[in-house]
Recover the amino acids of this structure.
């Protein structure tokens, strides 16, 4: 049986994933879709909509709900993970506590993203371990954040077949192609998850990147990044079109000021959008994903995940930007270190594609610095080592300052204690 298991299926993104599966039913003939979550209310509401969507389009697709992880994983062909340990209230803490210490609070980078990684990596390690017993040949497609750090942990410390996914590279490439008026323009990029740059935009054989930078083109910003932009001089200095998350690096004081003055964190806004969506989903007359879903910053994750699964299943060799071990494609990283790079996707997984535009010295320095942070952060998540945690934060460009790192670390560790048992064990 062709079975897809979705872990964290109470997410309001799930209808987009179901929509993608249904639209590809001729080339991705899923027979059973198992939706698993620990939040019974959300699973029931989102799951019921998923069942209505399937019944409306393809009665052959069985959509089943469960709160049992092993049941969901048993004999799965693909496992798609979109978990949020501690849910949105934990994200709110990641975003609201750091600004009180003069640090940026963000869910995927800086000290906020660090704590999300600490909470999430052990849970993903458990999922990978259970997959080894229940579905050893399955592919894990992870779009839980921080995606790159999770891939770094799983690909180094488990045998699971997996790729990390993010919607930002898709949006960046689409935006650049639109800017040059060529939907077939060839795009190259280098970097890590939420730390990347487009380094080449070729249209009909002509390199357009220099002209775009000179015009101050910086791409389109997703809904979850506060309104701001990179100015022309900044673009020329870094030498590429930056991932929108680099606003937190290049404009950090303004981003911090915005966070300190805002009435609501992004997590609180997302809670409101989520409740609106759940009300819509509960309508028994609804059998398709609503437009409101696009207001969530991560929309298209699910679409990308289904497209990736289709490329693996049909051995297409299609190009996707994913988080995998770079295999030497980026010579300034170790072969085993995970990067966010273009790969040919087939039945045997991801084959990194050669990169001609390797990036500027600025990009290389920042990538190597943040990769060193990620390696230490993974160590801290797996061992509960306070020393590794502080060492990681002292490297990160958005933290660095030891007294602030220490005090904010202690505050967040206390706030998230129920989700970080490894630190309590290590401290005994």
């Amino acid at each position: 049986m062709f079975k897809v298991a979705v872990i964290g299926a109470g997410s309001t993104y799930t209808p987009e994933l179901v929509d993608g599966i249904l639209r590809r039913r001729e080339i991705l003939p899923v027979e059973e879709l198992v939706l698993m979550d620990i939040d019974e209310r959300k699973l029931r509401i989102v799951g019921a909509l998923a069942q209505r969507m399937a019944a409306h389009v393809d009665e052959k697709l069985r959509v089943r709900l469960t709160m049992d992880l092993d049941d969901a994983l048993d004999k799965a062909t693909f496992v798609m993970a979109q978990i949020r340990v501690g849910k949105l209230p934990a994200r709110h803490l990641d975003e609201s506590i750091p600004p009180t210490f003069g640090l940026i609070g963000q869910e995927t980078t800086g000290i906020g993203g660090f704590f999300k990684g600490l909470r999430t990596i052990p849970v993903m390690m458990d999922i990978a371990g259970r997959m080894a017993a229940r579905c050893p040949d399955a592919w894990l497609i992870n779009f839980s954040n921080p995606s790159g750090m999770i891939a770094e942990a799983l690909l180094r410390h488990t045998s699971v077949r997996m790729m990390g996914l993010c919607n930002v590279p898709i949006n960046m490439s689409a935006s650049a192609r639109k800017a040059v008026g060529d939907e077939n323009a060839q795009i190259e990029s280098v970097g890590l998850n939420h730390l990347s740059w487009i380094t080449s935009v070729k249209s009909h054989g002509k390199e357009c990147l220099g002209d775009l930078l000179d015009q101050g083109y910086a791409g389109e910003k997703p809904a979850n990044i506060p309104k701001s932009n990179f100015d022309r001089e900044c673009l020329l200095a870094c030498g590429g079109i930056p991932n929108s998350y680099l606003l937190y690096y290049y404009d950090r004081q303004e981003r911090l000021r915005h966070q300190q003055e805002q009435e609501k964190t992004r997590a609180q806004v997302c809670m409101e959008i989520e409740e609106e969506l759940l009300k819509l989903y509960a309508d028994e007359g609804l059998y398709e994903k609503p437009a409101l879903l696009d207001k969530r910053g991560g929309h298209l994750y699910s679409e990308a995940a289904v497209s990736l699964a289709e490329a693996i299943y049909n051995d297409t060799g299609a190009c996707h930007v994913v988080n995998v071990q770079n295999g030497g494609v980026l010579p300034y990283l170790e072969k085993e270190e995970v990067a966010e790079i273009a790969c040919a996707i087939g039945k045997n997984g991801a084959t990194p594609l050669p990169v001609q535009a390797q990036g500027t010295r600025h990009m290389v320095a920042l990538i190597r610095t943040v990769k060193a942070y990620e390696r230490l952060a993974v160590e801290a998540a797996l061992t509960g080592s306070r020393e590794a945690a502080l060492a990681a934060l002292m490297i990160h460009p958005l933290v660095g300052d030891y007294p602030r790192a220490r005090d904010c670390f202690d505050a967040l560790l206390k706030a998230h204690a129920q989700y970080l048992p490894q630190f309590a064990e290590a401290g005994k």
